[in-house]
Amino acid sequence: MGPVASCTPSVHGRYAREWQMERAFQTALWLLQPEVVFILGDIFDEGKWSSSQAWANDVKRFQRMFRHPQDVQLKVVAGNHDIGFHYQMDRYKIQRFEDVFAPERLFSWKGINFVMVNSVALEGDGCSICSEAEAELIEISNTLNCSRELVPPSSQCAARQPLPASAPVLLQHYPLYRRSDANCVGEDAASPKDKNIPFKEKYDVLSQEASRKLLWWLQPRLVLSGHTHSGCEVTHAGGVLEVSVPSLSWRNRNNPSFIMGSISSSDYSLAKCYLPLEDTVLLTYCGASALLLLLILAHCKLITLPCLSGRSLLGKYKAV
Ligand SMILES: [Zn+2]
């Protein structure tokens, strides 16, 4: 999604984007009445280095913009702008993110399993945060295997939290490895100029190794990811569909969007919902403001509008 805070110097631009995201979110909540909303990271722009005071202010603005009824669940995965890229990430930044969003790695809802991955911690360099993240995913993998009876029943399975027997939906910030966006199509795919630029592993997309591990450990039926700001659908080994969800903010796209999903334990259907174009909204507001200004000036007799003078002429003839 688009960041709540921005390093762009234009304060006006920031307010316009935050207004746009708030209106988009609140309208979608009212119109579509979702049960669960997932945000795939990069809520903040400066979470990677902001002071605790700036962080608290950003969190407050996020909570105001993305307010929701208590029966709607809002789940958030961490992005590199929230906790930093791998080498900027530390326990303090992860902790302050988790204190606000309390992300569950494994979340089951109405027979559907969702696994929310901290993909920034999948660098694979053996750092302590990465090792813990991998150990946690292996643990989830074992629990899922027990539920799907992929392993013979054992006392180990009996001790685990029982889960619905359904392949999980994987939610993460970085996309799984793909060479580039060259094969992506659709009106919000990367521009022809950017499509063929090779992706950098562990920066634009996960490494090949981390991607293989996630697919092998979790055997998902659907992957949803963010980070690239452009739309793309990729089919991975075994026919697993990954949808790269573009940004919700005008900061990153003129045509932001979100995905609406209807998911059961054995099937899913997805639809992309486009938000109003920034150009269209700005033109509409500018046009309406200019018209209003002209009408005020004409009312105060500071200018004469040809259409109004024509009407008064007609009025005169009628009176005669
Ligand atoms: Zn990102």
From TrEMBL:
Record-linked InterPro entries: Calcineurin-like_PHP, Metallo-depent_PP-like, MPP_MPPE1, PGAP5/Cdc1/Ted1
Superkingdom in the source lineage: Eukaryota
The keyword Ribonucleoprotein appears for this protein: no
Topology with respect to the bilayer: Multi-pass membrane protein
CDD domains given in the database record: MPP_MPPE1 (cd08165)
Listed cofactors: Mn(2+)
Domain Calcineurin-like phosphoesterase, first and last residues per copy: 31-230
Record-linked Pfam families: Metallophos
Subcellular location, principal: endoplasmic reticulum
Keywords: ER-Golgi transport, GPI-anchor biosynthesis, Hydrolase, Manganese, Membrane, Metal-binding, Transmembrane, Transmembrane helix, Transport
Role, per record: Metallophosphoesterase that catalyzes the removal of a side-chain ethanolamine-phosphate (EtNP) from the second mannose of the GPI-anchor protein intermediate. Participates in the glycan remodeling steps of GPI-anchor maturation to allow an efficient transport of GPI-anchor proteins from the endoplasmic reticulum to the Golgi.
Family membership: Belongs to the metallophosphoesterase superfamily. MPPE1 family.
Protein name (Swiss-Prot/TrEMBL): Metallophosphoesterase 1
Native source organism of the sequence: Echinops telfairi (Lesser hedgehog tenrec)
Upper classification of the organism: Eukaryota, Metazoa, Chordata, Craniata, Vertebrata
